[in-house]
Structures are given as structure tokens and as C-alpha cells.
Amino acid sequence: MAHLRGRPEADAPDSMFSPSIARIAATEARDWSVVDSWVALQFPSRQPPPFERNADTLKALLDLIAFNDKTSEEARLFARVDRDFFSQMSPSADLEDTEGPATVAAIKNAILDIVQQELPKEGRVALHSMSSMAVSARVSLPEPECLAAVILDIQSAIFETEQMTSRTEALHRHIHSEIVHTNYVLSMIQHGVHNLRELFGKRNVELQRIVQSMTAQVPEFERRNASLKSSTASLVFTVHDILQEEQGYLALVENRKDLEKRISVFRGLPSDPDLARTELNAYRRELQRMTSRRDAAFQGLVERETPVKRR
Q1: pTM of the predicted protein model
Q2: What's the start-to-end Cα distance of the chain, in Å?
Q3: Fewest beta carbons within 10 Å, which of 6, 102, 276, 294?
Q4: CA contacts within 13 A on the Cβ side of 84
Q5: Nearest in space to 223 (alpha carbons), one of 231, 235, 234, 213
Q6: Residue 199 CA to its chain's centroid (Å)
Q7: At CB < 8 A and 24+ separation, what contacts does 73-81 make?
Q8: Can you give the residue ranges of every domain in the chain?
Q9: Long-range contact list for 68-71, CB < 8 A, 24+ apart?
Q10: Segment 34-46, tens digit of pLDDT
Q11: Is the distance from CB of 36 to CB of 26 less than 8 angstroms?
């Protein structure tokens, strides 16, 4: 092949023993064959200009071929539309002015039919969706921007409606819970009122009994009050009397402290006078022995420290 010319023969063993390299080489060979055919068609009467055969050149030429095919297809489509349009017009020199609008409408319908027939499946679906959307949105001349704005408005309205619905449901749940709580509180209050009636009845009877007993004791209280008033009326105290009573009380307190101090010496003695006297005599004898021992120790100390006179 032409695109394999000039390749080193050392690459042949790799393509023979590697399936992946062989597939790549076969694909490149087919692509170069297509490119060579297309270039030959572009230069029918002369030799094509030389160019470098590499992967980038192959890719660029394949893209160019695809673009050329697409352009040719569009040109054929436009030519067919023009041909069908002019074939259906059938102009006549003696048409009246009243037939003009009908002819224009027929031409428009014919053009629309041709366009619809030539549309692919995706185009028909898109056109149908756009027309349905325009009818639903009540737009006479639909444009993509206008329909997009309508869709956004509808989506925002749907979102606001959903938000309001969710808030309404939340409010409904809250109201329902409050109703349940209110019914519970009402039942508790009614039950409490029924119990309070019984309790108040018992309490009323008890209070009446207490009032009756206290009423019976009123004369006794009045008598005691009268006696207290008479006794307090006979006693008349002055500030001087109160001061004297206070001084006497303080003197008694001092005397009590003095007596407690004296008694504290005998606090360890028995409460029986005879036993206390016996124990006191024992303490006195012990004191005398301790005194004798002290005097003897002192005398011995004096004798030991006094020097002996030599004769």
C-alpha cells in the first residue's frame, strides 16, 4: 500500500507476532485508503501534492473528510427543500388577489411538511416537545429563551407550592398534636374536678366539725382572756423596776459562776457525803505522804550539798 511505503522491514515481525499491532496497522491501512481515495477525487486531473504521512496528518484529513461529508449532506438537503418548494409553488400569471393569502398559507404548510419529513427522530421529538410546551404556556411565537423563562417560572411556582404544602402539613401536624394534648389536659381537669367535688365535700364536713368544736371552746377562751387581762392590769412595771430586776439577775449569774468554780474542785467525788468524806480523807493522807517525801528529799539534797567541816 502507498502509506506503507518506506517503512523498515524490521517492523514486519512485530506485526506478524502481535495481534494488537496487526489490528492497528490494518485500521491505519483502511483509513489511509479512504484518505487516498478522497484526495484523488479532489484532484482528478493532476497529481495530489505530497504530504507527510503520520498519525496527526491522518487524523486531520479524516476530520476534514467528515466535515466535507456533513457539508455536502446539508447542501443536498437544502437543494431538495428548494426543489420541492419551487415544484409546489406552480406560479400562475392570472391568479387573483384574493387567492394570495391561500397560496402563502399553502407554501408555509408545504415548507413545514418538508422540514418535518427531513427531521431526524430526535428533531421530531424536540419539535413536538417545544410545540406542546408553547401550547401549554400559551406562547404564540415560541423562542427557546421565552420557553426557558416560562419553565423557570413554572418550576419556581411548583417549588413555592411544595414549600407551602410542606409548611401546611407541618402546621397540621402541630395543630393535631396540640389538639391531642388539649384533650388530654381537659380529661385530666374533668377527672380532677370530679375528685375535687368529693374531696371538698369531705373537707367541708370536717371543717364544720372543727368549727363546731371551736365554737364550743369560745366561752373558755373568753374566760381565760378576761382573767389574763385582770391579772396584767394589777401588775404595773416601770423602767426602774426592770433595771433592778436585771441587776439582781446579773448578781445571781455571778454567784452561780462562783459556786460552780468552787464545786468544780469536788466534781470527782461521790454524791454520798460519807463516801465523799472518806475519799477526801484518803486524798489528805496521800497529800501528807507526798509532802513528807518532798521534805525528806529536800533535806537530803541540802545535806549533800552542804560541805562537811573538818576538825
Answers
A1: 0.28
A2: 168
A3: 6
A4: 17
A5: 231
A6: 49
A7: 77/118, 80/114, 80/118, 81/111, 81/114, 81/115, 81/118
A8: 27-78, 110-176
A9: 68/38
A10: 888 888 887 777 6
A11: no
